[in-house]
Design a protein that fits this description.
The protein has helices at residues 10-22, 27-40, 48-51, 69-74. By secondary structure, it is mainly alpha-helical. Helix 1 (10-22) packs across helix 2 (27-40). The protein starts with 9 loop residues before the first helix and ends with a helix.
Length: 78
Amino acid sequence: MRVVQTTLTEEEHKLLEDYARRRSKSIKEVVREAVRDAVEGKVIPEDPIFSGPPASGKTGKHDAGSVEHDLYLYGATP
């Protein structure tokens, strides 16, 4: 095994920590998965961004979908 080190902002670390907790995994596991997925070009089909309905049904109208997309997809607050 090789060790890779990086720096995250407090917000990035919180997001990563929450993501790992929701999946009952360690931060190390989700980082490894993310690296493999990014390098291999994989996506998670069950991710609501790929499988859920459109966040906004208001075609042509202004809404907060582009700003609050995480809230609509994952129930997370920005």
